[in-house]
Amino acid sequence: MARRLFASPYALVGAIVLVVILLPLILTGNFYLRVAALVYINAIAVIGLNLLMGYAGQVSLGHAGFFGIGAYAVALGPTTLGFPVWLSLVTGAAFSGLLAFVVGRPILRLRGHYLAVATLGLGLLIWMVFNNQSELTGGPNGMQVPRLMLFGWRAVGPIIWYWISGATLVFCSWIALNLINSPTGRAFRAIHDSEIASRVLGIDIARYKLLVFVLSAVYAAIAGSYFSLFDGFVTPDTAGFLRSIEFVVMAVLGGLGSILGSIVGAALLVVLPQALTVFHEYEEIVLGLIMIVFMIFLPGGIVPSLLARWRWRTA
Amino acid sequence: MSGLLTIENVGISFGGIQALFGISLDIRAGEIFAVIGPNGAGKTTLFNIISGVCPPQQGRVLLEGCDVTGLPPHQLARLGLSRTFQNLQIFFRMSAIENVMVGRHIHEERNVLAHMLALPSVRRQNRQTRETAGGLLALVGLSDLADTPAGSLSYGALKRLEIARAVAGEPKILLLDEPAAGCNPVETEEIDEVIKTISGRGITVVLVEHDMRLVMKISNRIHVLDHGTTLAQGDAATVRSNPAVIAAYLGNRGTQHSAVG
């Protein structure tokens, strides 16, 4: 019974809702809420990336590019186009999806390492645009981001962003879980395991690869918009290569093909550097060691590996 | 009156090696049609051409009288053509029943927005798909293993799973590429039963197979290929007594090279 409940996708959405609601009761104080909001924002991007990598099996090393598009959209929309912030966010997500659609058509024909390199190039190109268009973006110095106005209120501070990002994370998880448990999600997973078998069963693989690429780009752009609105400032590093790698690490460490894994991975990589500051200059070394140990002992990612062990024990 | 699937003068070469020379076939609705031949005769290449995996360089493929030459596999699936593979192409990270559910893809509503929101119609359809898939697993004797990850099924079970998955699309014509390859006699017997059941459902079956006992037992007609050309065609008795077929299988004294040494 407990197993059935745990296996249901909606149990997971319920669990996320509970955590989002209960966490502020345990972790009071702005610092913790700030860290939690950052976890949620990163998790949104990682869930999108996990749909692409973990479910459909298509790698992307340039997802920070889409994250950056969302981040700069809310900065540039109000200042240059006079859009309200919310409309800039929507436009950024739409533009990110459109770019993924246009670029995805040619590059999703590539597989494995070749696709990885192509997406890496795409990410670098986007970063370069933000870095070099100084008169618009302020170049490497970055630019100020206008505050989001919600019903006449300025959305500033960790508390309000905790709730906005938490609610969005719940919504994005719900959408992702719905999709996974639909014919579309089965098509994604089928393509991951055998493209040829998917094709002869009537799955238009080009369409589904493009669909999941666009979707993951939209998830990343929304997360990026939240990130820069929360921070109030955006620099080209938001779209940088290191962040792309960070997203991939979050997805892989937490567990490819697992929505919960995406959140756990994001939490680990946001919280650990904060917790490891006690090691001072050795911080990076300890972080690297922890990642290696996790991958050795939980090679399928944290969540899938633990679930498999638990099932094996209860079986 | 032409048949369900007609192949006219199909030929293809790979890097200067002619794999098929002007092959013509006419497969009638409802029959079990076997393509046999020694290794390298071009059987799987012929299947790849029919199923759209690799388009032919010469000739045409007609499905119910319509020219379908060069159509991609996913469109052919929609027109009622499905297949299995010699080397298993199973979705190993999915459970047995999920594999068969993927086979229902062309009969499912594909509105992505509805899928994202899990509308009641999508849930209802999911239940229907699972039910149909469950029935097909029963057909191939895998009901007990429905929720088992495909990766942990036995070889014989996977062979039957692949057939169930192909049948899930309700094809008019099903191509089975060596359904009994690597199976022990008991498993071959099971596959034999499954093929007869499928045929009994009105699905035309075309199979490539090395197990001669299986082929002779269940096929209505047999087509023999060797070195990319047609050697013979007819019912089991005709083919068995054809001298050219015997030569191709057992070797011909005049052309046989010494295998000693």
Quickly list its features.
heterodimer; A: 315 residues; mainly alpha; ABC transporter involved in vitamin B12 uptake, BtuC; two-stranded antiparallel sheet; 15 helices; 4 strands; globular; B: 261 residues; alpha/beta; Rossmann fold; 2 domains; disordered C terminus
Q: Would you give an account of this structure?
A:
In chain A, strand 2 (148-150) and strand 3 (153-155) form a beta hairpin. With 315 residues, chain A is mainly α. Chain A contains 15 helices and four strands. In chain A, helix 2 packs antiparallel against helix 8, helix 3 (30-55) packs across helix 13 (259-275) and helix 4 (63-81) packs antiparallel against helix 5. Chain A has helices spanning 2-7, 9-26, 30-55, 63-81, 85-107, 112-132, 134-137, 158-180, 183-193, 195-200, 205-231, 241-254, 259-275, 283-297, 302-314, and strands at 143-144, 148-150, 153-155, 233-234. In chain B, helix 5 (120-139) packs across helix 6. Helices cover 37% and strands 23% of the residues of chain B. By secondary structure, chain B is an alpha/beta fold. The termini of chain B are far apart. In chain B, the strands form two sheets. Chain B has a six-stranded mixed sheet with strand order 6-7-8-3-9-10, with helices on both faces. A four-stranded antiparallel sheet of chain B has the order 2-1-4-5, covered by helices on one side. At the A-B interface, helix 8, helix 9 and helix 10 of A face helix 2, helix 3, helix 4 and helix 5 of B.
